[in-house]
Amino acid sequence: MTLQAIHPETLKATVLSVLGEKAKSVEIALGEVTLDVTPAHYLEVMTLLRQAPGCAFEQLVDLCGLDFSTYADGTYEGPRFAVVSHLLSVSLNQRLRVRVFCTDDVMPLLDSVHQVWNSALWYEREAFDLYGIVFDGHPDLRRILTDYGFIGHPFRKDFPISGHVEMRYDPDLKRVVYQPVSIEPREITPRIIREAHYGGL
Length: 201
Prior knowledge:
CATH class: Alpha Beta
Helix content: 10-25%
């Protein structure tokens, strides 16, 4: 027997009734429900979403960082960093996206939700490593994807594509050495060559 998926409007109403004023906004787009919360209510909201009978989101499927600094071709003027989580309720067959913006662009900080979902431990380490978002209360917040001694956060929009440091094996020293990047930064624009009157043009 297959459990019927909850209609997005029903889920929206349930989330609003459970969270009340703690929900900054709840929207439906492309059949999916997105909940926006403030950093002050983030941990409390996530706990309620797991425990409340109408929500019962037992699984944190994904948590990732976002950098909005170049969003909408640079016309966006809100907070720079956000964390987006995707929650799944297996028992009720429903999904929810939760988004929270960090209030400080220089030192983005949020509460850790690892005590609500243990899977958040590695997801939060990844968001810290790639975006520099700090999760208060995380027991082991250190880099998870970049190399030891890596400087910066490579998924930030202002991080250079080539990076700052390159590593290579030095046969004389018989070890790996780190040095400034030797690649000249350049703009790569692909050339498009078409025959005359291609496509009726």
